[in-house]
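Because showing beats explaining, we let one protein speak, sequence and backbone structure tokens together, and leave readers to judge.
___
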Amino acid sequence: MTAAPPRAQGSVRLSTKRLGKTSVLNVFRQSGSFKCLFPRTDGDALDAVLLNTAGGITGGDVFKFQGHATEGTALTLTTQACERAYQAKPGPPGQISNLLKIDAGARLTWLPQETILFGGSALDRHLNIDLTSGASVLMAESWVFGRAAMGEVLTDIRLRDRIEIRKNGKPIFLDAMQFNGDLNAHLARPNIANGAGAMALVVFVSSAAEGQLDAIRKMLPETVAGATLVKNDLMVVRILAPNSFELRRVLIPILRRLSDDTLPRCWMI
């Protein structure tokens, strides 16, 4: 019997606390192929950069993250580079689980760089965000469907993705998608994505959301994006683009505005 090849595993857990006027690290644990860096910043937020040292994710890999912004603190989370979902053999998909908790008066910014799907990839990803009254969150999740410059076509994809945001234990936002098969043909349909090669979802939960709606709408392309105010404190933005370059061209100014021009440096490289 042939032994199964070793799979990458890793986990990171961290929380913040208040020290004077700044947010600093409180609890921190990391293991396996998942690491965290803490670049110096000039603001009051603690910046953390997540790094997958395995270089990507494939079938059977498991990565877990838990982040907790405690009362009155600010936490910004991003990734050092785009995540890459590589071709997987038959069997379990790669798994990514992210759990974020935000206490009263805290602010959390979740801005991982894009996830790039390669041909034959299999990925199961979950993002759960739990907020308390008075907490705020800005999150963005972006997908790139193959490398357009390489002529890559995604004809065999297994994908599950679920994003759930709760406030005081009650769901306020749920976004889920599941696909198995020829993703390129699916995205080519005019009523699905009309051939788009990249897309992004932005969710902004804040008392400032309503006041930002008109400005964000003016920043969006007319036919491939939209912004909706689900509640007075909940804005949702969706963007389709032909490729990752065009996606960033639209997305970065939006994130800059909603983050008060504190976009992580990794996004600017």
